[in-house]
Design brief:
The complex is a heterotrimer of chains A (about 775), B (about 280) and C (about 170).
Chain A (H helix, E strand, L loop, with lengths): L2 H6 L13 H5 L15 E7 L5 E7 L1 H4 L4 E5 L30 E2 L5 E7 L2 H9 L2 E6 L6 H5 L26 E9 L2 H6 L3 E9 L11 E6 L5 E5 L4 H12 L6 E4 L16 H11 L3 E4 L2 H6 L7 E9 L5 E13 L5 H10 L10 E9 L13 H18 L4 H8 L8 H5 L16 H12 L14 E11 L9 E8 L5 E5 L8 H13 L6 E5 L16 H28 L6 E4 L2 E4 L6 E3 H11 L6 E7 L7 E11 L5 E11 L6 H20 L30 E5 L22 H13 L10 H14 L1
Parallel strand pairs in A: 1-12, 10-11, 14-15, 18-19, 25-26
Antiparallel strand pairs in A: 1-5, 2-4, 2-6, 3-5, 7-15, 8-13, 9-10, 9-12, 13-14, 16-24, 17-18, 17-23, 20-21, 21-22, 24-25
Helix pairs in contact in A: 7-8, 10-11, 11-12, 11-19, 15-16, 16-17, 18-19
Chain B lengths: L1 E6 L4 H11 L3 E4 L13 E6 L8 E4 L2 E5 L4 H6 L8 H4 L5 H4 L4 H6 L7 H8 L2 E5 L3 E5 H4 L13 E8 L5 E8 L9 E10 L2 E10 L6 E2 L1 H5 L8 H9 L1 H4 L10 H23 L5
Parallel strand pairs in B: 1-3, 2-3
Antiparallel strand pairs in B: 4-5, 5-8, 6-7, 6-8, 9-10, 10-11, 11-12
Chain C lengths: L5 E7 L2 E7 L5 H7 L18 E4 L2 E4 L12 E3 L12 H9 L8 H14 L5 H8 L10 H16 L16
Parallel strand pairs in C: 1-5
Antiparallel strand pairs in C: 1-2, 3-4, 3-5
Classes of the chains: A alpha+beta (about 775), B alpha+beta (about 280), C alpha+beta (about 170).
Chain lengths: ~775, ~280, ~170
């Protein structure tokens, strides 16, 4: 059977099973951190720096400490000074240890100064006002050029700043990271080209805007251990980092993630938990800290702005002879994720098209601006803007249809790329051959849905409203091979139900459900027989957490293996009960059957009762861990038709088509949901989201009123098409789905704008003013 | 503003008396959404006027009369002969805000982004102010500067009167925003009076994009006596630059906002002309 | 808890109750403190809709309303809509459509949709979008929420009209 056919025969996988927690959430039941706060919890508030770059000359908390209701105040003078990084990454992290719980220096508007825990919010806020701070203002750095300039102010001049692994790090030059590689020879390849290109692209800041702001609550258990309930994507990294910063053993801490209200990467960070844990320790009380929306914008993590210089050469026959991608990202005031994001700009983009001569250089710099973190897409989003814009321009130079140009050049099944081995996430990558690839079919189906065949060169048209169609091809990855690990346990109960324990982190993505489906498929039982419990560092096995598009591909395979382990035990006990050799029985429909006599069977419930209570008693329990050996890319092709008001510069999206090859979609409805949400986020990122700063580096538009994300009234017609393939190395053929979809809109719209008007923008958001100026410039040339 | 007391007067007279007694420590509360834009901790007593029967819309002779405490969503829903208020109201903020924010709240203390002052200026509305007894103030007078000046002695806005548009009238409005519920970059409202295809009178008002809502006299002058045609509208719109001081916003320049205003004026005038020709709403 | 010095009386999910409060306390804070935690804090600024409750049948932001503005009025929260055994129609469709991802926006969506279903009789797309434009979601792109809503509304519109369902929301669209 054709392996694509395999997926159609699954019983639990490749089915839109009801999301396990959907009804509970729709009913508004207690689900999120703030729903579990004891009545007498203290409220934590933080005094944030009003300055972008300053030393704290004097800090006096004495008055605040004595104010009504105040139980504790934390500042650099009364907490351990332990250099660490806040990024939730594997250990040791590929990021500088450049952060302290509280420091004597502030490095961006929104940096920590001192914190208060008090009986009420009002009392905490009043106490903040009683904290006296004297700053010595330092010259700030607000751009890449300023950061890189010789003699630039040094943002991290502290002695302790260092990197825990041997990677380039030069804080005296504000350089956070540097990674480079070359396959073949770019110079040689360029010489072979008929057409050469050298362009620079810029991508902007953005915030993830989870509807639930950052929230963390810590309390002491009766045993004296610290229990942290937190809205996090990385419970195990959180535990490790909090242990480090509090200077207590990991054993003393338990981290639990309940339901959370979205993350998209911003909660792959330990931004609150060290403080709430320290307050719990100092006061003996439960301590709740919830960012308000303004704090989420200013202090929360952001998408790294990039400057990308892309050079390339192409021959008349469509061969891309050389690519040189030179990326610099602005990682803001602290360096977590700086290296890995810039690496992914190369590793997740450059393998997409055949080219024998590829050069990559990625650097990350500090500035005194909001801090870059993990954001869905993780560098690929930014680099695809450049790459997919350039693809259209190369096609135009050689007179080829841009779709045909991509079809000619994209990576095929069975092929590899030197980039896979050369570039990982902060280290060398893993050589890989693409095992599953339905990109060709994605392009065909997407083109059909948008009516690509009717697309023409419409640049010559006149009239106020002009239409254009654009496209982009995309890839991402699935997990970080050889570095990340996930594990699972599954045990049977007497009614044939199972407790599935996973460290894996459901952000709302539905991973609890997807993992239950995988377990059920492997165990030949129904998904609703799974009781999933996840993300509790005391009770669930380890998992790095939800990032790098790893939950389905990595954690899912751990679950499948654990289920297979349990299945072996079920078969053994079933065989024992039937008096048959194990080789003569099989599992189906939650029962163990005799292969030779169809009347002979015992149900899982029978087996569980037998094993738990009756004979040779033992707990049937399967456990497994998984490390991936490759990061098979999902593939996508995005298309859009836009209408440009050439008198105002406003862009209206008439139609958007998102195709996606995620291998087997374990749960098609949830896979579509990820694609729809990520696509819309990409659309508003391209058109309306931006960080506006004043001259002192303060973010000005820190509310949903002024930072524009879409409502139901803004959404354009969006069509999502799942195009199946089958990834042999993934659980039941699955690859990842969640990040790739955010990468398409910016280049698609830039290409469509060019198709409509001849105006080519190399930065976004595509604000009406920028679009209008570009169109006017084109018209002037005519 | 920090609310420290809530008072619910039983009558208009009592409300006024209470406000006069409180002075700067009192404030009128209808929807209360504007309070969000008044930070600080100055203690204030809220005088809740939602129980005074000021939420209504009715047609009385040549005017529609809207009670000052009428929520925007009611105005959005209302239909009457040649009624045009819903066009802008459905574009103000979000559904939940429209259910609570009132017309009075939008025009008693005018914020730069307020839309209703623009519409009311164009429509030549009249504001009814109670100071023991009621008196009417024309929109031109009312919006000549910050209307909050009129309410410092405890006086209250009780109603807004909007002339019923006649057959020869055409009204059009445009609100330019980054997305559907955002604050306005530029709001334009235009009321044309036509006779045999010629513009007999014109009232064109603008808001957002300028420091305070105002009528664009230069644009109006370029319309009166001319044919209601696109060429005329374009020329009149070009007078927008000189007619007001345009201000940049949302990271975009004052020059762009001016260009956007010119196009919005043109679009509003086209809509007004269509309205006069009897377009379906 | 913050010291209270006032009380407020209102009907909450059909029950008349008296609550201790202060003039500067927002309705959202009161509701969550009194156990109605299905109403969420998303922004505190009246922009995201996670705190949407019905006040006399109209969708409003509990984070902007002062608790005392509810005096003598009817407040309804998500706790009044559906149970595990008998979910509301829209909740059923949301679950069936796969429209609930993180779920944080969903109670607010349900309340706005409830106001729509109880106020209007005809559910044109434009009107539906206007009712829902104050509820932000970052997970779903609104696609499946829309599908579930459209299905719920079409089912309701197809039903024989009950004798004038009395709501206190005024001015149904003609």
């Amino acid at each position: 059977m054709n392996r694509h056919e395999k997926a159609k025969n699954f019983k639990q996988v490749n089915t839109s099973v009801t999301k396990i927690d959907a009804l509970q959430l729709a009913l508004g039941k207690d689900s999120y951190v703030a729903d579990f706060v004891p009545n007498n919890a203290l409220i934590v508030k933080m005094l944030w720096s009003p300055h972008a770059h300053a030393r704290i000359k004097k800090l006096d908390v004495s008055k605040a400490e004595k104010m009504p209701g105040v139980k504790a105040v934390l500042w650099y003078g009364n907490v351990p000074r332990i250099a660490h990084c806040t990024a939730g990454q594997g250990f040791p992290e590929p990021s500088p240890y450049d952060t302290f719980m509280f420091d004597k220096k502030v490095r961006f508007v929104g940096d920590r100064v001192a914190a208060v825990a008090a009986e009420t919010e009002e009392q905490a806020l009043a106490a903040l006002e009683a904290i006296k701070v004297e700053y010595e203002l330092l010259k700030p750095v607000f751009s890449l050029d300023e950061a890189m300039a010789p003699g630039a102010p040094v943002i991290h001049d502290e002695a302790e700043a260092h990197v825990p692994i041997p990677i380039p790090y030069e804080p005296k030059k504000n350089l956070v990271a540097h990674v480079a590689c070359e396959a073949g020879s770019f110079e040689k390849g360029l010489k072979e080209a008929d057409f050469k290109f050298d362009q620079t692209y810029e991508t902007p800041y953005a915030q993830h805007c989870p509807i639930e702001p950052y929230t963390s609550m810590a309390q002491l258990a009766p045993s004296g251990r610290i229990h942290i309930t937190t809205s996090t994507q990385v419970p195990f990294h959180c535990r490790r980092i909090v242990a480090k910063t509090l200077d207590v053993p990991v054993q003393k801490i338990r981290v639990v993630k309940p339901r959370i209200g979205g993350g998209f990467g911003c909660k792959q960070e330990v931004l609150l938990d060290d403080v709430t844990a320290m307050f719990a320790l100092r006061t003996g009380r439960a301590c709740l800290w919830q960012f308000n929306r303004e704090e989420t914008f200013r202090t929360g993590r952001t998408r790294h702005p990039f400057r990308i210089r892309l050079q390339a050469g192409v021959k008349k026959d469509g061969t891309i002879t050389a690519i040189n991608m030179d990326c610099i990202n602005n990682t803001g005031a602290y360096g977590g994720h700086g290296l890995t994001v810039v690496s992914c700009a190369g590793s997740k983009v450059l393998p997409l098209y055949h080219c024998e001569n590829i050069k990559f250089d990625g650097k990350s710099y500090y500035t005194n601006l909001p801090v870059g973190g993990a954001y869905r897409g993780f560098g690929a989003t930014q680099a695809f803007f450049a790459m997919e814009s350039l693809m259209d321009q190369m096609a135009e130079a050689i007179g080829m249809d841009p779709m045909k140009f991509r079809q000619l050049n994209h990576i095929r099944e069975g092929e590899g790329s030197p980039i896979f081995a050369a570039l990982g996430e902060g280290r060398e990558g893993t050589p890989m051959t693409v095992g599953s690839n339905a990109l060709a079919e994605c392009i065909v189906q997407g083109a059909e849905a948008i009516n690509w065949k009717d697309r023409k060169d419409w640049r010559g048209k006149t009239g106020r409203y002009r239409r254009g169609i654009g496209m982009a091809c995309l890839m991402q990855g699935s997990s970080i091979p050889d570095i990340d690990m996930g594990a699972a346990s599954i045990k049977i109960n007497e009614d044939g139900s199972f407790n599935l324990l996973v460290g894996a982190t459901d952000l709302g993505t539905g991973s609890d459900t997807v993992l239950a489906q995988i377990a059920a498929e492997e165990l030949e039982t129904a998904t609703d027989k799974m009781i999933v419990y996840s993300s509790d560092t005391d009770l669930t096995p380890f998992d790095v957490g939800a990032y790098a598009s790893s939950t389905t591909y990595l954690s899912g395979e751990a679950v499948r293996k654990a289920a297979a382990d349990a299945k072996r035990q079920i078969l053994a006990t079933g065989a024992e009960m039937l008096g048959l050799p194990v080789a003569e029985v099989f599992c189906e429909d939650a029962a163990v059957h005799s292969k030779k006599d169809e009347k002979k069977k015992v149900t899982y419930s029978d087996i569980a009762n037998y094993a738990l209570y009756q004979k040779n008693q033992y707990q049937i329990i399967g456990t497994a861990s998984h490390i991936t050996k490759k990061s098979p890319p999902p593939f996508a092709a995005h298309f859009a038709e836009i209408e440009v008001d050439t008198w105002t510069g406003f862009i209206k999206v008439l139609n958007y088509v998102s195709t996606i090859d995620c291998g087997t979609a374990v749960n098609p409805a949830l896979a579509e949901g990820q694609t729809e949400g990520g696509t819309l986020n990409g659309i508003s990122y391209a058109l309306t989201e931006e960080y506006l700063f004043d001259k002192d580096g303060k973010m000005q538009n820190a509310s949903f009123a002024d930072y524009h994300i879409y409502s139901m009234r803004d959404r354009p017609p969006l069509r999502t098409i799942l195009v199946p393939s089958y990834e042999e190395t993934g659980p039941f053929g699955a690859k990842s789905v969640s990040e790739i979809c955010i990468n398409g809109a910016a280049p698609v719209f830039a290409n469509a704008l060019y198709n409509a008007t001849g105006a080519r923008l190399r930065e976004f958001p595509l604000t009406p003013e920028k679009v209008l100026k570009a169109i006017q410039a084109v018209n002037q040339k005519k | 503003m920090k609310l420290c007391e809530f008072i619910r007067p039983a009558s208009l007279a009592e409300a006024r008396k209470t406000l006069r007694g409180l002075g700067p420590k009192g404030m009128v509360l209808a929807g209360g959404t504007a309070l969000h834009f008044m930070p600080g901790k100055a203690p204030v007593t809220a005088v809740d006027i939602t129980g005074l029967g000021l939420s209504y819309i009715k047609q009385k002779g040549d005017f529609f009369v809207i009670g000052a405490a009428t929520p925007l969503s009611d105005i959005q829903r209302y239909r009457g002969p040649r009624w045009a208020m819903h066009e802008i109201c459905r574009r103000i903020s979000t559904h939940q805000i429209r259910n609570v924010s009132t017309i009075g709240g939008n025009i008693c203390r005018v914020f730069p982004w307020a839309d209703l002052p623009v519409v009311l200026l164009a429509m030549n509305a009249r504001m009814v102010v109670y100071s023991g007894k009621e008196k009417e103030i024309t929109a031109d007078e009312y919006f000549s500067s910050q209307p909050a000046r009129l309410f410092r002695e405890g006086d209250l806005l009780t109603a807004v009167k909007i002339p019923v548009l006649k057959a020869q009238h055409g009204f059009g409005s445009v609100k330019a925003t980054r997305n559907a519920t955002a604050f306005s970059l530029v709001t334009i409202a235009a009321l044309l009076e036509l006779k045999d295809g010629v513009i007999k009178s014109a009232r064109v008002a603008a808001g957002s994009g300028i420091p305070f809502p105002l009528r664009l006299k230069g644009v109006e002058a370029a319309l009166v006596g001319k044919e209601a045609a696109t060429t005329v509208f374009k020329e009149a719109a070009a007078a927008a630059g000189a007619a007001a001081k345009w201000v940049g916003g949302e990271g975009m320049s004052a020059d762009y906002i001016r260009q956007l205003a010119e196009v919005s004026i043109l679009d509003a005038l086209e809509r007004a002309a269509e309205f006069a020709r009897g377009r379906a709403e | 808890m913050t010291k209270t010095n006032h009380t407020v009386n209102f009907t909450i999910n059909g029950e008349k109750k008296t609550f201790a409060t202060r003039p500067d306390e927002k309705l959202l804070t009161l509701l969550r403190r009194e156990g109605y935690r299905g109403t969420k804090y998303g922004c505190g600024q009246g922009t995201c809709g996670a705190c949407t409750v019905l006040l006399d049948g109209r969708a409003t932001y509990a984070c902007l309303l002062y608790s005392m503005q509810a005096e003598g009025r009817e407040v309804r929260t998500i706790e009044s809509v559906g149970t595990f055994d008998k979910p509301g129609e829209f909740q059923k469709e949301l679950v069936a459509a796969g429209a609930v991802q993180c779920g944080y926006c969903i109670p607010g969506m349900v309340m706005s949709a409830t106001a729509l279903m109880e106020t209007e009789e005809v559910f044109e797309d434009e009107i539906v979008k206007e009712y829902m434009d104050g509820n932000l979601c970052r997970c779903t792109g609104y696609e499946k929420i829309w599908v579930a809503l459209r299905k719920t509304l079409d089912k309701q519109a197809a039903q024989p009209k009950p004798a004038a369902k009395k709501t206190s929301a005024k001015g149904a669209r003609k």
